[in-house]
Amino acid sequence: MELKYKEGKVTFIIDTLCTIEFEYKGGSIALHRLAYEIASMDYYVYIFNEPMYPHENIKVIKTQKISHDNGWWAEFSWENFSFNLNRTVTLYTQITSGNPFNTKYNGRWILDNYEPDKWDSYSNDIIYNYGTFKTPYLSEEIKLTIFDYGFDKFKNLNKAERNGIGYILHKYTPDWGIDFLEKFGATQIPHYNGKHHLDYLVEEFNKYEYFITFDYKSYYTTAAALCGTKSIILNPSESPNTYRQKNPIQMYGVAYGMNDIKWASDTIHLVTNHLKELERNDKQTIIDFVQYWNQKLIYG
Asked: Under 8 Å CB-to-CB from 115, ≥6 apart: which residues?
């Protein structure tokens, strides 16, 4: 495959390798949504599996997973492709080591706390942080954020009865977590390891008064709040105010610890409007990202 480029515009390669077989994890959604937003700005974008958000400017490089460790890390084989070295930018994730596509201009998107064994392989990549994920001290970072907030999907169905506590086991669950939740009388919402669509969660979240998770970086909490369920993040390591400043999508309708439940109850009506404002801010980070590379490569 030969990668073309639009006259006067950069071509982008988005590293979606880690999304293969994990289509509906948060990071996967972010990568595919970013590809769609850039394509919508009339740039060619190349990815490595079928797009979750199709667009005529998105082109797929056929790729096969040849080995993996049952996590996001894996080895891949993709069809040969060529590109204009001086007009192409790759945005890698922190999971990919080095520069396997041998592109000249590269960014690195930190979608989770950085992996020390891979950091030194990033060379001179420009570092973009999805939120406030940990990176080595003094590393320069640029904000790049995109969510599919799911306004058309996650809604309060205003059911007559809403009671009990639901929970999802995801990242950061401590050893004592499951025993605590069972003793607390919470009901597990079936977790699907990101391999199925999120739609059914609307019904699940609308059943409960409260939703509990130990994952302090999951969009589940905000999705639940959009559905009218007060979310509680357990096992906090920071004060609620500090946490909310670092994680603005969980500003309202979300309690950070059991002692913060009143805040979630008092602010849940503010969730939707707040997220719509964040969505506008997210769009600007994408515009800035695209304009930076277009200016650098096209106009010098």
From this structure: 94, 95
3 domain-assigned: no
- 234 neighbors 170 (Cβ within 8 angstroms): no
Residue identified by tokens 């096209």 is: 298
In a domain, 67, yes or no: yes
- pLDDT per residue as tens digits for the range 153-202: 899 988 778 889 999 887 778 788 888 888 878 888 876 555 455 667 88
Cα gap 203→188, rounded to integer Å? 14
CATH no. for residue 211?
Answer: 3.40.50
Range of the structural domain that residue 245 is part of = 165-274
Sequence-separated (6 or more) residues with CB below 8 Å from residue 173: 214, 215
- Measure the CA–CA gap between 107 and 288, rounded to whole angstroms: 13
Distances (CA, A) of 163 to 10, 72, 160, 244: 52, 36, 10, 26
C-alpha 194/C-alpha 166 separation (Å) is 18
Per-residue pLDDT band at 299 (split at 50, 70, 90): confident
Nearest alpha carbon to residue 187 among 196, 178, 195: 178
| Residue 297 in domain | no
CB-based burial, 232-271: b 16+ in 10 Å, e otherwise: bbbbbeeebeebbeebbbbbbbbbbbeebeebbeebbeeb
Q: Return the HEC string of 239-283.
A: CHHHHHHHCHHHCCCEEECHHHHHHHHHHHHHHHHHHHHHHHHHH
Q: Per the structure, how many domains does the chain have?
A: 2
Residues 46 and 138 in one domain: yes
The pair phi, psi for residue 46, each rounded to 5°, is -115, 130
> Are residue 124 and residue 217 in the same domain, yes or no?
no
Residue 51: CB atoms within 10 A of its CB come to 18
pTM across the whole model: 0.80
Q: Are residues 141 and 20 in the same domain?
A: yes
